[in-house]
Amino acid sequence: MVTKNNERSCPVxxxxxxxxxxxxxxxxxxxxxxxxxxxxxxxxxxxxxxxIPSEEVYKNYYTKCSKYDVVKKQNDIPTLxxxxxxxxxxxxxxxISSDTAILDIGSSIGVLLNEFKKHGYLKLKGIxxxxxxxxxxxxxxxxEVT
Length: 146
Ligand SMILES: [Zn+2]
Known about the structure:
The chain is α+β, with helices and mostly antiparallel strands and 146 residues long. The protein contains four helices and five strands; from the N terminus they run βββααβαβα. Bound molecules: zinc ion.
């Protein structure tokens, strides 16, 4: 099991005293446990993720365990992913105009960005650490993901 124990000081004020708010337990996948704590800085009250896995763990996870690697065509995309994207669209659209630039960090293959595209948004870009996401986003949706 690859574990993490990267305790962090407050990203805002660098204070090390913090209060644990809750442990975000993630299901272990393969050898990866991506669970972490959500804490509040006792000095400035900033809330942040603590005990997060190392960058190397995330890099290995996204290289070996991308859930979208099995997607070869649009019909392969899990229904839940499309429903989640539609729910996010309904939430976001009242607050933005159709010429808004959209950057989706952690976009995977661009399912959410494609929903924006269907609704007429043209300035779309995704960022994702999975090595296959850029090619799949381009092939499936014509959307740029780096
Ligand atoms: Zn702080």
